[in-house]
DNA sequence: TTCGGTTTGTAATAAATGTTACGTATGTGA
DNA sequence: TCACATACGTAACATTTATTACAAACCGAA
């Protein structure tokens, strides 16, 4: 079943030989919602390929403060881990399962080997880097140029897009943590967005109208 | 003379054959201080390798507002251009010569070709990505977790480090643009840093003491 | 239904940053 | 040396965001 998923999610970019090898050496793992897949300062020994679900990539500082950088979706890999694996080998980010998720974990040594031996893997890595690079730029943009109310709306819209549903079941506190601000600020701004008829709020639920 | 520089700055990472090819197909360019090397929305047809000098990589929004992302030093390449070249082909950043600088510009098609044919080039690209990735993370950190006074001091220290001199000849307005704030704010905070004996201010000059 | 924990609303206040306005210093070239 | 542009200092004020505190609403379990 997981084998099927590997084919399904990766055959468009990785060649048959490689997929076969992935099935041999990869470790299949399941994570439940809110499980921490990798944490800051943990050593990275595997490259994750996401088969299903969704993973939140966060930057955490020393005091446990977080900031959402981007989401990982099925068919993608975490470029952070690539960058980390090659260099310091310590994770600089935290990865948390947003919903139940299945992963294949590839031991780093294969990542290196394949990079020089398999063209489709090279392209995959390169493409991943590009995608994430642009997403990091986007994040920087957001932080540097946007006010909190804009950031909040953007965050909500993005979540709605990824979830394929207009309604998010989330509490204000969670949003505050992702955007690295306080719950009070989020509540205030959500109320404001509701007054502008852009969202509808109820307990543990936010309906996005725009 | 520029040929010498290519060897000097890149022989530790790129092999002889490749360097020879770079000398054949690369275009040598000189930029003076404050020259715009590439601007937002310009199409990217070349990968730059920096031979000497220093280049400021900025993110610019629509209204001409800027934010410094990182500096490029001799022996490095701009990973942004890699990411841009492969994808949208339009630059998402602005590159400005910080001081007089010499570059070799490699046409994109070679970048692709070498990526699959030359191991040392592959490693170079991969290493560049790692370095920049970490720097982008650092930038995100700074924006998300630090206050303006901390950001300012960090900016000054970084510049001092890159310049090999305790004294920066820069005006408050320039700093304000790099950090995406206003001149008044920078002047205020600089004064504050001076009172804390961390810097010494004079016209067009800042001496960093810590 | 009642208790108790969780989630949300809101006010009051503080701190950080942004904006406007204008005065003062400093260097340059006529 | 005088006029002028540029760079800097600073006050007053506006806006945005953070913090604290507490009340109200909601929900599930006993």
From TrEMBL, chains A, B:
<feature type="domain" description="Cyclic nucleotide-binding">
    <location>
        <begin position="29"/>
        <end position="117"/>
    </location>
</feature>
<keyword id="KW-0238">DNA-binding</keyword>
<dbReference type="InterPro" id="IPR000595">
    <property type="entry name" value="cNMP-bd_dom"/>
</dbReference>
<dbReference type="Pfam" id="PF13545">
    <property type="entry name" value="HTH_Crp_2"/>
</dbReference>
<protein>
    <submittedName>
        <fullName>Crp/Fnr family transcriptional regulator</fullName>
    </submittedName>
</protein>
<keyword id="KW-0804">Transcription</keyword>
<dbReference type="GO" id="GO:0003677">
    <property type="term" value="F:DNA binding"/>
</dbReference>
<dbReference type="InterPro" id="IPR018490">
    <property type="entry name" value="cNMP-bd_dom_sf"/>
</dbReference>
<dbReference type="InterPro" id="IPR036390">
    <property type="entry name" value="WH_DNA-bd_sf"/>
</dbReference>
<feature type="domain" description="HTH crp-type">
    <location>
        <begin position="165"/>
        <end position="209"/>
    </location>
</feature>
<dbReference type="InterPro" id="IPR012318">
    <property type="entry name" value="HTH_CRP"/>
</dbReference>
<dbReference type="InterPro" id="IPR014710">
    <property type="entry name" value="RmlC-like_jellyroll"/>
</dbReference>
<dbReference type="GO" id="GO:0006355">
    <property type="term" value="P:regulation of DNA-templated transcription"/>
</dbReference>
<dbReference type="InterPro" id="IPR036388">
    <property type="entry name" value="WH-like_DNA-bd_sf"/>
</dbReference>
<dbReference type="Pfam" id="PF00027">
    <property type="entry name" value="cNMP_binding"/>
</dbReference>
<keyword id="KW-0805">Transcription regulation</keyword>
């Amino acid at each position: 079943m997981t084998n099927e998923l590997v084919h399904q999610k990766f055959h468009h970019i990785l060649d048959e030989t490689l997929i076969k090898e992935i099935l041999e050496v990869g470790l299949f793992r399941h994570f439940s919602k809110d499980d921490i897949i990798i944490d800051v300062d943990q050593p990275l020994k595997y490259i994750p390929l996401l088969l299903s679900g969704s993973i939140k990539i966060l930057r955490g500082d020393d005091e446990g403060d977080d900031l959402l950088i981007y989401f990982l979706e099925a068919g993608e890999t975490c470029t952070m881990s690539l960058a980390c694996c090659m260099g310091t080998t310590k994770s600089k980010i935290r990865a948390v399962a947003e919903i139940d998720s299945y992963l294949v974990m590839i031991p780093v040594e294969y990542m290196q080997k394949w990079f020089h031996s398999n063209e489709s893997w090279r392209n995959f890595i390169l493409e991943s880097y590009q995608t994430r690079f642009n997403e990091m730029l986007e994040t920087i943009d957001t932080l540097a140029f946007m006010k909190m109310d804009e950031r909040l709306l953007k965050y909500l819209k993005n979540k709605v897009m990824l979830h394929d549903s207009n309604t998010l079941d989330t509490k204000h506190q969670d949003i505050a943590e992702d955007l690295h601000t306080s719950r009070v600020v989020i509540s205030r701004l959500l109320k404001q967005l509701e007054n502008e008829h852009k969202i509808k709020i109820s307990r543990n639920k936010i309906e996005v109208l725009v």
